[in-house]
Model the fold of this input.
Amino acid sequence: MAIVAVSAGSAAYSQVLELHRQNRRWLGHLPFAAFERYANDGTLLAFTDGQTVLGYALYRLPANHVSLTHLCVAKDARGQGVAQALVDEIVRRHADRTGIRLRCRRDFPAAAMWPHLDFEPQGDVVGHSHAGDLLTQWWRDFGHPTLFNQEVAPERVQVALDTDVFLDLTSDREAGEASRLMFAASWVADVFELSITKQLTQEINNNPDPEVRRRNQALAEGLRRAGSSESEWRSRERLLLDAVKDRSLSDHDRSDIRHLARAAASGARYFVSRDQAQRKLLGDHAAQLLRVEILSPAELVQLAHQQAFADYEFRSIEATRFSIRPVIPSEIEPAVQRFVNASDGEPAAELRTRVQSVLAEPDTWHVDVVEADGGLVALMAYRDHRDHREVALLRLHQPSGITLARQLGFQLRDGARRAGLRGVVVSDHCLSREVQDGLAAESFVLDTTGWIAATVDLTATRSDIRQALGSVPRWFQPKRDWAALRSALANPMPPTMVAEIEQRLWPLKVTDGDLPTFLVPIAPSFAEDLFDPDLKAQTLFPRSDSLGISREHVYYRAPSPRRPAAAPARIVWYVKQHARRPNTGAVRACSLLLEVTVEHPDRLHRRFGRYGVWRRDDVRQAAHDGKAMALRFTNTELFTHPVTLADLRAGAAELGCPTPFLQSPWQMPRELFEWTYRKGRGDETAE
Done:
């Protein structure tokens, strides 16, 4: 048995044409000239036993994927793995592409085959026939990490939904009440990330009613798609099948096993189902073999409430007195009156309607207020689409100003990053001038759809980033900006351009750019006030509100011959060891350096005093020969895994870099920065 590329005019070519003739009813008409063109392009494959062609695949290579035109197996050879072998060969030959796409009529026998070949339905389209038959679009993903599908370590525990729980959302049946509560309860979404697997999308596609199918597919778009490679979920499927090999399994049981296997392979910790028979058959095996616990919707709601309800009610912003919490009904009217943009002619009734409309969909929208000293200072409403976060309301009480606007813009962007989304679109059409200025300062760009910021969680070389930026997100505007970013990455860039790209696509890091990085030592007492709320939490004193919500800060020190000569640059913060302070003596954060100024201490403090924690006398004391240095920085990212001094030195030695110098700012080699940054974020490639 072999799979070969068929040449025009060969014996195998004639057999392929005969197979097509025998199955033209299902394959449709294709001119001989087209077959010849495919053969000449090397995209006509045949499965042969040495003499006879048992099946063939015919495909095109548009853009960056594979478009499958024909997959045909001889009648006597069906059920022997010929189709699977042909598809696997296409994957092997074109593994650098993103996946395989095809269309197939729903009423054709082959429609039931595609899920078994690991294809996922992506909706229906009307075909070009006179009857207007429905065609299902199918996609098999090759699992490549790209700029926008890279998985971010989730802040919330992943939960996969069984089909019965998902369908409860579109019905009013009494049995599904707990499922609907699970989606409506805000504390569930704060603790758990609800997701669906490819198995569920396939089962949605099996519904014969096109209207129901479209409605369920639209609902599925709002949930995270939990993906995995075929080999990953197939291995887990075999574990479960072996565990119940003595049981007589129905088709429904086998479907449940595949669903659990896909959920486990995608990283789900819980599987929510109302199927008691499934739980009885597979519950213990799933927990022991796959480490997935099957829960009912009511059990998940209760678990979420126990774990995080109190934390959700008051979530502090950067350890300040500002806190974010869900809006409560009694606050709606005061919020409308407080946040209506009357200066730009917005009627209060219009804002009231918009607030009520998002509150009416608690399973879709998060509606939060920011509170300080018992008063409301901000209102925001957002929801997550499959690949981006949409912000329908972003309002500030005017005295809060641009500083809080910048912080909220960053919080929304960082939240999207943590949720694995590609970016943020602020669609509120009545933003105040302060909010607009704050978003612009956070690298949001205004276009016809609103204020837009892309989020690229990638640490890579220019060429890898450029490749990852190949596809433009549908919501990203203007499209020319995306093309300009890709074009800039094609050539070496000056530090200013690297810094601009890293800001526009935060938290992107360009590892082979000319943006220098400096290791800067800092005392714990200054780090905790400037950028490290985790250290501040060790003390009894609150963090300054102005410093806590500010997105820019200044650190003063004595001028040094090793100082950064100019901005932009990166700063990697080493928090000095303190005997009575846990988690010190480690690299704890990374920032973007905006400005380096060496000046008389009084003039420095007068200019930057609001950004720093030092008093005028402190700056004077740090001066040398009448000069002090100020480092103004932004985009500080705290490391989830601080890098100890011992690890930093070991990493430098392993990479052949000089031993880090900790008495003053020290320029880090590129490779040591990349290693430190990856390790600080918990990236296993740094190990």
Q: What stands out?
A: The chain is about 40% helix and 25% strand. Confidence is low (pLDDT under 50) at residues 147-154, 308-314. Residues 401-418 form the longest helix (18 residues).
